[in-house]
Specification:
There is one protein chain. The protein is mainly α and about 375 residues long. It has a two-stranded antiparallel sheet. A two-stranded antiparallel ribbon has the order 3-4. A hairpin with a 2-residue loop joins strand 3 and strand 4. The longest helix has 25 residues. The two termini are about 15 Å apart.
Length: about 375
């Protein structure tokens, strides 16, 4: 897809249309998948399975082990630039103060704050974004917020649309659900979701930029485990077909295909770039450059920690119901569920690259 608009339209058509095809194949009624706010829980999830839980743990740890060992064995060289001490900016301190204030408000129940109690997530995450950019600025002398303000601001509406697409896909698997959404009308529910959803991409991208200032999390992966794919265009078509089958599959067998909700959108975006012969976020791995992949996966995992922690005692919150692995909760999330943040980080990177195409189009490789 040489045009970012065409790429976006193809992605939207597949993400929104194929799960509906799946429920048509399964003979399920369409109307309940379109209710708004989504208040009906109609997917019956499989119970916890110890063998499948351990299989999931093995499937997560096996590919991660080489990367963990690589980072652990890295011995950083002295870096005069990294050792420079820059003052923490005043706007960063403003983010710290507002973050602490809204954290207190989010986890308390003051009567005078009751009308706004359900709306603390957005200012909390705006504060987080400001603080992380300030931390990057202190270490690198620049940050996303100050160096690329246009791109940074475009991430907010793109982020809202991006996460609403996951909310839609979740209709078919119902792995997370919000507590008592029926108390909100459609418009209130829409804005209650859109505002915090708009902070997802800015948070992940700002965190990735900050993590890149730590040599141990960046430099070991400049040249590590080259991964080449023969016939990249043919492989891209195969990936696109696999993504299409996965998106349809979550409508047919949600308990079986639900993990692919976190993989299929990424495969669509990568395969469309591959078919067009354009670079994408994983292009560097052919030469062993895993910095983008590792950085975004870790950034999403770190953001995931704060998402789940701040959700824990909030009034407007979500819970989980995940087949086969609904045990060992860390906050509300089952422990194995955190692995989804790793691929989610790559999806954030792919969507950010799409936003970048609208700002500054990339040339085919």
């Amino acid at each position: 897809m040489r045009s970012p608009l065409r790429k976006l339209l193809v992605f939207a058509a597949m993400a929104f249309g194929l799960p509906m095809v799946g429920i048509g194949v399964a003979g399920e009624p369409v109307a309940r998948y379109l209710e708004f706010p989504p208040t009906t829980r109609y997917v019956e999830h499989a119970p916890f399975s110890l063998p499948l839980f351990f299989l999931g743990v093995l499937m997560v740890l096996a590919p991660l082990a080489p990367f963990v060992l690589r980072a652990a064995r890295y011995r950083p060289e002295p870096d005069a630039e990294a050792s420079r001490v820059r003052p923490f900016p005043l706007w960063g301190w403003a983010g710290v103060v507002s973050g602490i204030a809204f954290w207190i408000l989010a986890w308390s129940r003051f009567s005078w704050f009751a009308p706004l109690q359900a709306h603390t997530f957005t200012p909390l995450w705006v504060s987080y974004v400001v603080v992380v950019n300030a931390l990057t600025y202190r270490k690198a002398g620049k940050c996303l917020m100050t160096e690329r303000p246009r791109f940074f601001l475009l991430l907010f509406p793109a982020s809202a649309a991006f996460w609403w697409s996951f909310e839609y896909l979740n209709r078919f698997v119902q792995n997370w659900y919000y507590v008592d959404p029926s108390r909100y009308g459609p418009w209130e529910y829409f804005w209650l979701g859109t505002l915090p959803f708009s902070t997802v991409l800015p948070a992940v991208l700002s965190t990735r930029e900050w993590l890149a200032t730590f040599p141990r999390l960046d430099r070991p992966f400049r040249s590590f485990l080259p991964l080449t794919v023969p016939g990249p265009k043919a492989a891209s078509w195969v990936l696109l077909a696999a993504a299409a089958g996965s998106l349809a599959g979550i409508g047919v067998r949600p308990d079986l295909f639900y993990p692919l909700l976190w993989v299929a959108p990424l495969l669509v975006l990568l395969s469309l770039d591959g078919i067009a012969g354009r670079p994408h976020i994983l292009s560097g791995v052919a030469a062993g450059d895993w910095r983008e992949a590792v950085g975004y996966a870790l950034a999403a995992l770190l953001c995931g920690f704060f998402w789940e922690m701040w959700n824990f005692h909030s009034l407007a919150k979500w819970n989980y119901s995940i087949p086969y692995v609904q045990r060992l909760h860390f906050f509300e999330m089952p422990l194995l569920g955190y692995s989804g943040y790793l691929t989610f980080g790559l999806e954030c990177a792919a969507v950010a690259a799409l936003v970048e195409d609208f700002v500054r189009p990339r040339k085919p490789a």
